[in-house]
Amino acid sequence: MFLSRRGSLHALEQTRPSRFWARWLGQEMPSADSVGRICSRMDVSDVRASVHQVYSRLKRMKALEPPAHGLMQAVVDGHETTASRKRCCSGCCQRIVHTAAGDMAEYYHRYAVLRLVGQDLSLMLDAEPVRPGEDELAASRRLVERVLDGYPRAFDVLAGDAIYANTDWFKFVLGRGKHALAVLKDNRPNLIADARTLFGVLPATLDEPAGNRRRRCWDCDGFTSWPELASRVRVVRSLETYTVRRQLDKREEELSSDWLWVTTLPKLQAATQAVVNMGHDRWTIENQGFNELVNRWHADHVYKHEPTALLVFFLFALLCLNVFIAFYCRNLKPAARKAISMLHVAQLIASELYASIRQGPARAPI
Ligand SMILES: [Zn+2]
What we know:
The protein is an alpha+beta fold. It has a domain at about 185-270. The protein contains twelve helices and ten strands. The protein has helices at about 10-15, 20-25, 30-40, 45-60, 135-150, 165-175, 190-200, 270-280, 285-295, 305-330, 335-340, 340-355, and strands at about 75-85, 95-100, 100-115, 120-130, 155-160, 180-185, 205-210, 215-225, 235-245, 250-265. Strands 1, 2, 3, 4, 5, 6, 7, 8, 9 and 10 form a ten-stranded mixed β-sheet that branches. Strand 7 (about 205-210) and strand 8 form a beta hairpin. The radius of gyration is 23 Å and the shape is globular. The two termini are about 30 Å apart. The site of zinc ion has 7 residues, from strand 3.
């Protein structure tokens, strides 16, 4: 269903007469209801073991190499899959929304997701549900504990957005022998103030073109303005300027984005450029990971509103995305990749399901 991007169990069910299923399963495909029911009773660790199997094979075949700076980065981020004001289950989180008709309860499911960022191949490794009443950091901690048990040497650095610039989180990551990296925003005001003062008087560490941008970076370590964290931290700033041509009057306008990251990575292990690249790579979980999963893979669809089934379907989506991306990027020759898009390959997979269906769905006589 995910690989052929069917988008619903009922769309999958329409392919039941396909001879592909008899050949592949050795029996008839179960009904949509049965697939949903079975997923709600599955052992989630079996699905996670399949994700691990794909990772191990890619690693063994040297298909998952770190970027040029030599450090493997894992990115953890939260993703909300579904929200409803009518339907809820025992795993639903709850929030109050203010509407014109008054305050209402809204139920939602959110996952902490971990993605491994390699040189030109990234993998979604695992997901953990945010439980009712807890925050994303609590779920992320459970997720990282499990990933570290299953993949102890898979990554060196653990990155996250501004909520991960958190004292307990940094202590936890350091305690597990990894380095932490997080976007620095207003939640650490003293550190930001000190860094901005210093960067205001120091010359840029790096001034170079990066794609269509001009990148000026400042990099200082030894900051003690995060006293709750016993160790000193390093702050890296990247001020990036670029020009856009306005469609209306064709005039060029200069825009800029100003990034700040806090990290425990020492300069000897990661140069300024490496930290900036890792900081930007964090976006791959948002841009390539979640956008792709939601828009192309229908991962946010509620296939069955039951906590285990929702998690199992989400993990299946991650697994299929990994297999598909690995196939597309590593199995297809560059010439084939140039000629056909990922969507085209997905349509070819779907066409195999439909090719052997001799009769379409039953129709009323004309
Ligand atoms: Zn629910």
